[in-house]
Amino acid sequence: MIAAWGVRALTALGWLAVLVGVFGVVLRFLDVQNQRLLVLASAAPYLMAAAAVGVLLLGITRHWIGFGVALAVAAVATLSQGPLYVANSSVTASGPELTVMQANIWLGNADADSLIRQIRDNDVDVLTTNELTPEAVDRLVAAGIESTLPFSFLVPGSGGEGTGIWSRYPLTDKVHHSEFVLSALSARVELPDGASTALYAFHPVPPWPSDPSLWSREMDRIKVILDAVPADSGPVIVSGDFNSTRDHVKYRNLVTGRYRDAADQVGAGIQNTYPADRQPFPPMIAIDHIVTSGAQAESVESVVLTGSDHRGLIAKIALGS
């Protein structure tokens, strides 16, 4: 038997856990603009998990009203996260396959040899890079990236400004979207046999420590750009460090309609990519994403980028015909 004071303490803790879970659910479904709330929204899955603790504690104390509330919150949380682990195929893709890798190389500091080994080991066809510096370009070229990915569209810069695309196949229709603080690029990847796909590489500014309204405007601008792509113009692949998780409304606005997160298409779940430099702790949030339209992801996995504070993301994608 639990003493009366113990029952009261467990009940109070149970209700506290329920409130934390409710807070996580609210953060996921509200388009918050406050900087602290945006950062906390990145941790929404962890906050929502507190509802399960509430179910356990309020069940132990037989506080049935609280138990029912906790169960309802836990159910909403599960319904919000569970679909990420269930394949959601939206396109029947019969075209060629393309392996795409997204890599934020942390102010150009990622180890060039390690990155190129990942490219070769995983038969990567297209690489999008964020935080690409001129010095990093030199190191990657010296390490032999052009022997595997000979075509490129690079706008390197100081600090985190630079973005680049390397490709196994020719790139045409190159555009530098100069309205973004951190370089945003697009090009068309020309595959053999006349197939092609539009490719976008984005890196909106983070909502912290930058002004969150700037992040919000850039996320909205990305949506405008993608929505303007004609639906009948063929496959589209979007890759980058979005500084957003699926628990941010601004990101979910991008992956509705004809655009889908590649990890969601295959049910790969939450592929945490940041921060990856806090060993022995694993990355905690998923802010690097690969998105498709008119194509179907076949696999998605995160990989180690030695020397970076991000993990890389690799998706095998079948293009629509």
TrEMBL record:
It comes from the Bacteria. Keywords: Membrane, Transmembrane, Transmembrane helix. It holds the Pfam family Exo_endo_phos. Residues 101-310 form the Endonuclease/exonuclease/phosphatase domain. The chain crosses the membrane at residues 12-30, 37-58, 64-86. One of its GO terms (molecular function) is catalytic activity. This is Endonuclease/exonuclease/phosphatase domain-containing protein. It comes from Rhodococcus wratislaviensis NBRC 100605.
